Fold this protein.
Amino acid sequence: MVRHPPPPSSLYKFIPRQYGEALLQRGALRITTLFECRKIEAAGPGRADPGENTKHTSHYVHGGFLRSDPHAVPRPPGIVLSQCYVQGSYDGPDIPAALVEQAWGRAWGLGMAGQIYAARSMFESRYDGPDMFVFCTTSFPSRCLQSRWRSKDGDDVWIEIFNPPAFFSALEQATRHLGQFCGVHQVQYGPRVSTRGVFPEFEDPRWPAVPAAILKPPDFWIEREWRQLWAPPAWPIKPEVIRAPELTKFCRLLREVKSRPQRAA
């Protein structure tokens, strides 16, 4: 489980001026989707991330027993799966043994009962998560981000959310129709592709444990992103504009921004 610190005292949104004025005056706000963020033509070349909500994990097993049902009658000895390659989809730090065994059983026609020995095997999980609604902010407005996120006409503004808890609470109330609210999360920056079991001493256990919806490549670290997520009741979904006048109480126009942020050690 990933533990997040509370949001900082202020968060920021860089958007075209007309949308900034709509938020400040009427509480109108566009909620986008993760799949929309994958598209360069929709999100823009500085914002788009084609790998949103995806993760690829490979697990190598040098040798060991797996058993799907501890009460099942063991199979006759001698069933050895060598150089087995099984694909699945799972968003978590370790591919669950039950899913591994199910995939193994399907691949080899062994069913779900008994004991199986794995030798020199690889299990691969290519996770492509479902679309979700998302509202993104940054904790560090900078001129570098301005250049990266600038719209085509260049008429953009920074909006400061000076009371994030109150703002997110009001936004949650106004977006109940979008689906299940999944919280406010600090985005983690690390590799989406992880390999386990080859050189354990060099493996970093942090990244496989991070949910795909809040994991972005290191190239995006300068965004210092916080995101609010909703799981819709049905798909497909598309961006929506919501109106919540209460939001106007917790945000204001930011007049001046800082220089390039320094990366944390």
In short: Helices lie at 17-26, 34-37, 40-43, 97-108, 143-149, 164-174.
